[in-house]
Amino acid sequence: MGSDVELTDAQIASWISHYMWPFFRIMGFFMIVPVLGARVTPARVRVMLAFVWTTALYPILPSMPLIEVTGLGSLVIIAHQILIGLVLGFVVLMILQVVVLAGQIISMQMGLGFASMVDPANGVNVAVLSQWYQVLVTLVFLAINGHLVVLEVLADSFDVLPVAPLSFNQGSFFALAEFGAWVFRASLMLALPAIAALLLVNLTFGVMTRAAPQLNVFSLGFPVSMLAGLVIVWASYWAAYPMVQNLVGVHVDFMRNLMAW
């Protein structure tokens, strides 16, 4: 003889809240994070991955606020959780954008600024060298388990930033803006060795032109600058692994500090 199990509205609302609010934060993260957030990854796949990751985290998530799912307050919570996920994913995305911008700067210096192709991940034109750097850094990022590190930070965010309205304060947005400035500085620092070497090549051609005016510097300068740039890029491959490790460490630390503000 079985006994009937009665579920109250409060219990059902508690179960839905415990699953729905984290799902929107994780979905916002997966919509912009590198590799998974690329345009080549269908939106349906990203939603399914968010569903799977939310299910995996469900047993260890902290208690969620009991807010009526059909009320206006739930829309505020949903928008806020999506915003948190997008911000965290944006910080991870900047790992690739640092090297993309550095590749763009180097391409302009070595005369390959005109050689561009459509980036399938973002749907915009980028320099071929930037695309090459992006593929290299993505492979190294996956090789050092960077994706597992950022997923761990995402899971920890529910303890540091619990589901509640207006968890972000004004200092977080100022810190995010300052971090954008750091991305430009880091890109310039990565491209600085190549810029200095190519500057020496151009200075050498300038001296040669003054010493031998009949020398056609335009016919020689372009291929030599391109060859020198390719040699510099080849010589810098050994630094890709520690560079990506450093970038991942800086971005993960910033994500943790951003959540602690």
Written description of the protein model:
This protein is mainly α. It has one domain. The chain has eight helices and two strands, in the order H-H-H-E-E-H-H-H-H-H. It has a two-stranded antiparallel ribbon. A hairpin with a 6-residue loop joins strand 1 (116-118) and strand 2 (125-127). Helix 1 (9-30) packs across helix 2, helix 4 crosses helix 8 (240-260) and helix 6 (170-211) crosses helix 7. The longest helix has 42 residues, at 170-211. The chain is elongated. 29% of the residues are buried. The mean pLDDT is 80.
How are the secondary structure elements laid out?
Elements (H helix, E strand, L loop, with lengths): L8 H22 L12 H15 L14 H39 L5 E3 L6 E3 H16 L2 H15 L9 H42 L5 H19 L4 H21 L1
Antiparallel strand pairs: 1-2
Quick structural gist:
By secondary structure, the chain is mainly alpha-helical.
List keywords for this structure.
single chain; 261 residues; 8 helices; 72% helix
Number of domains: 1
Question: What's the Cα radius of gyration?
Answer: 24 Å
The amount of beta strand, in percent, is: under 5%
Low-confidence stretches: none
The neighbouring-strand order within the major sheet is 1-2
